[in-house]
Amino acid sequence: MRIFIWVMRFLLLALVLAAVWLNADTIAEKPIHFWMLLAFGVLMVLAVVAIDVFLPKDKLNVLAGVFFGLVVGLLISLGLAMVVDMIDVFYRLGLSADAKVAAKSVIGVCVCYLVVTIVMRTKDDIRFVIPYVEFAKQLKGNRPIVLDTSAIVDGRIADLCQNKLFDAPILVPRFVLHELQLIADSADKLKRNRGRRGLDILNKMQNNKAIDIQIDDTLIPEVEGLHGVDQKLLAFVKVKDGKLVTTDYNLTKVAQVRGVEVININDVANCLKVVALPGETMQIRIIRPGEEEDQGVGYLEDGTMVVVEGARNKIGKDVTFSVTSSLQTAAGRMIFGRLESVVQTTNQQEERPERRRPWRRNHESQVDNDKA
């Protein structure tokens, strides 16, 4: 893209110089007009290139934007051509017809170039300027996946990519890697361990040939000018036209508001959890009392919390319950059920008579002694 832009800039300068040179013979009688035209052309090129350099960069992926820019540029050039005639008459410059043609040609080339570059770089926002006109994005291949610091530290992204759930190029911006390094160098032991874990996972993914991951060191002006890693990350994903992968709940909500496609690993994990239908019976171990009276709480193997009515006094026991309802929350899925029975194991049934018999014998002997 940069090479293409520089080629266009040199082509612009060549076309302007050619337009002045072709009309040099016709205005040779008045050399001052030639030098004025040459200076005007060079200044015009410098002004246009300066505006072009300070505009935000983007990729050339919509050919329709070029044609649209040319049409708009020609219309603007037609209006500016009339302005050239008005200036010549008003200030009595006495420009020849050929000199006017050359000046109009230079203006037309510069304006067309400027409009085309603006449309190329702001094609996604062109609808804001011109309602009902929008260029559709035409992408080749899979859209890249951009990893957040929380997703790297979490570690599950490596297994998901290894199993081809995310079959797309993975990008890690340099500012995310820098934040990960700062966490690994933190004085807090917990943060330091999390940062080192993230670096180990990143190294593991890079050494895995099945995962296409790369560190993106590109300096993007509209990204570097922002403050905060989250803001830079959202702008980076928009520029790369990718998808953000994170475990941060708040960042997920902000990305949705900003129109950035986001994949939350926690949401993916919740979608893969067991689906419990009302009336289905399941077994679970009650480990603690619930918040409401007569409730017991347990967990399935995948971490799903289960609240069982009537199981408050069954802590430490395996119970059978029937599902009454399930609730999907941002923190995960919860299952509510009603106690059916307590699961009796064979060892428990064999141990009961052995514990009761000594007590009965002792009790009977004590009664006999009292009677004597």
Features:
OB fold (Dihydrolipoamide Acetyltransferase, E2P); six-stranded mixed β-sheet; 3 domains; 14 helices; 16% strand; five-stranded parallel β-sheet; Rossmann fold; alpha/beta
Structure description:
The structure is a single chain. With 372 residues, the protein is of the alpha/beta class. The chain has three domains: 2-129, no CATH class; 145-270, 3-Layer(aba) Sandwich (Rossmann fold); 281-346, OB fold (Dihydrolipoamide Acetyltransferase, E2P) (Beta Barrel). It has 14 helices and eleven strands. A six-stranded mixed β-sheet has the order 6-10-11-9-8-7. Helix 2 (31-54) runs parallel beside helix 4, helix 3 packs antiparallel against helix 4 (97-121) and helix 8 packs across helix 9 (189-207). It is elongated.
Radius of gyration: 37 Å
Spatial arrangement of strands, main beta sheet: 6-10-11-9-8-7
Report the sheet-strand fraction.
15-25%
Structural class: alpha/beta
Low-confidence stretches: 56-62, 127-132, 134-140, 346-363
Order of helix and strand elements from N to C terminus: HHHHHEHHEHHEHHEHEHEEEEEEH
Largest sheet report: 6 strands, mixed
Basic shape: elongated
Report, as a whole number of angstroms, the end-to-end distance.
Answer: 109 Å
Per DSSP, the total helix count is 14
How many domain units?
3
Mean pLDDT level: 77
